[in-house]
Amino acid sequence: MGMGEISGVKRDISPFARKTEQYKYLLCSQPLPGLVLDDLLSILFTLGHTRGTATGNFPYWVISLRLRYCAFYTTNNGHRPPPAAAPIGGVNGNGNGNSSPASATPEQPNILFIMADQLAAPQLKIRSIRPVRLGLLPLPLCAPSRMSLITGVLPMKIGAYDNASQISSDWPTYAHYLRSKGYHTALAGKMHFIGDQLHGYETRLTSDIYPGDFGWAVNWDDPERRLEWYHNASSILQAGTCVRSNQLDYDEEVMYKSKQFLYDHIREGPDKRPFCMTVSLTHPHDPYTIEEKYWDRYEGVDIDLPKVKIPKEQQDAHSKRLMKVTDIWDEDFTDEQIKRAKRAYYGAVSFVDDCIGELLDTLKRCRLDKNTIIVFSGDHGDMLGERGLWYKMSYFESSVRVPLLFSYPQKFQPHRVTQNVSTLDILPTLCDLVGTKPSVHLPMDGLSMLPHLEGREGHDTVISEYTGEGTISPLMMIRRGPWKYITCPTDAPQLFNLERDPLELVNLANVACKGEPLTAEEEEAKLKFAKFEAEAKARWNFDAITQDVLLSQRKRRVVWDALKIGRFDSWDFDPATHAEGTAKYIRSFLPLDDLERKARYPTVDKYGHETSRLIVDQAGSHGE
Ligand SMILES: [Ca+2]
């Protein structure tokens, strides 16, 4: 296998493909400059072709790309997408919105949901397998995006306005639905909750990396003022290697706790429940700094410079504000500075790859790999200098498009889906996969991606809402087919056709006021624009939303100003209060041999031979 078997893949993948027996090596052991997922996909597709089977022992990933690419792939490989399969475990929700009570069986699949932070799909160059489209976000900012992801409900409905917005604890999350279905729901890593730090997770393994309070609220009453915690240019100016960073401290703890959770799971008794563990890493988020070994993986690589450069005076209104909010308006970064920032970012992506590899390897060694669904996604991307912008908060592709992958080889063939799907869709999809349904009596904006996973026709629309820093009024997006429409009461509207204009250079909203004659494409754009305008008007009451956002901001400012005075009672999660504490390791009140026996996996008999039987005659064991 090698170059050219899959249309659009330009790299020779044979050096990597040899190591696919151990999936981790795909991710871990090769220096793949910013191309890891791209290569991964190439290899999986190629192997699918080579083996002509959908039941190989490596993970299959389903990724949302354009349908016609999928069709091309299918033709090339001589087999069709799989027939519609029954939901895993069977749907036994009763259909009236109440999921059945705890009824998980040992056969029910575990779920490992891995998240990265600020991982931009376009920056991974998955776009080299054109045409490609990946998961989009309900809101391109950390906390609101995550709150919508866990609830399946759009940000304005749940009040997830900015990075200091508290959503009510009575919103059901995927953790609630899966827990009701009998799952042990656990969170390791970041979720950026404000207030309630659990929201349905039964076990939280680490604290959050971000504050769980109102400190990062946006202030539309004083939009010109840059707040102390906003992004600034330092990330780019100071990009490079480090021995340690805040983020490395955090992710290494997340990884240790996650792996320990898996080890603890396999040593539970026969009545153990299936798990749904979310492992949420903070890399490759800025600041752009990473250990030397990851930096060195990109030695000699010509780091790509941003494709689109726009003079700042010609930027759209929101982009201009973002340049000021992120304090880069007066900066003129050199090519060298940009390359260093991107190199460190790519290094951090490789770090994430290594972490994924470690988790998959642990699953395998714990013999959990055959019965664990793996989901991979993120909260938003990073502009990384494209259009002169950095970080997120924008609806341009590098900020709003994230990877979204599902792997469950027992049920789904590898293929790529082209429709627009959202991280909002993860909750109803997980529900389908474990045989339950979200309540039909409650708001749900997400739609199940089961049809996409099964190779059938699925939905193709993503709605996104933004009221965080940088904007001064609600900024909304509708993405459907090739079209991306952006509207905001204080800014000029935008319309792009990403099929014809993947770099988003031609604002087709301008044709609405252009005189005759129009080309056929302009006529089409004019018609689309009018429809999107009507749809937005019907969907959003901008005045009411603006008042809701202002009310929330003002309430939080008053409360936060008071809470900062005197003794500070933090809402930040303290894992120590939830840990097993003194009951772990060797203690005087625990029979020593019992402890050692229970802690060893796999179980062995008195001569050290592996056995699945309960050991009752081992020296020192007490009473079993
Ligand atoms: Ca984030």
From TrEMBL:
GO CC terms of this entry: cytoplasm
Alphabetical UniProt keywords: Hydrolase, Metal-binding
PROSITE patterns per record: SULFATASE_1, SULFATASE_2
UniProt signal peptide: none
GO molecular function: metal ion binding; sulfuric ester hydrolase activity
Domain Choline sulfatase enzyme C-terminal: 547-601
InterPro entries associated with the record: Alkaline_phosphatase_core_sf, Choline-sulfatase, Choline_sulf_C_dom, Sulfatase_CS, Sulfatase_N
Domain of life assignment: Eukaryota
Protein family per UniProt: Belongs to the sulfatase family.
Protein name stated in the entry: Choline-sulfatase
Organism: Apiospora kogelbergensis
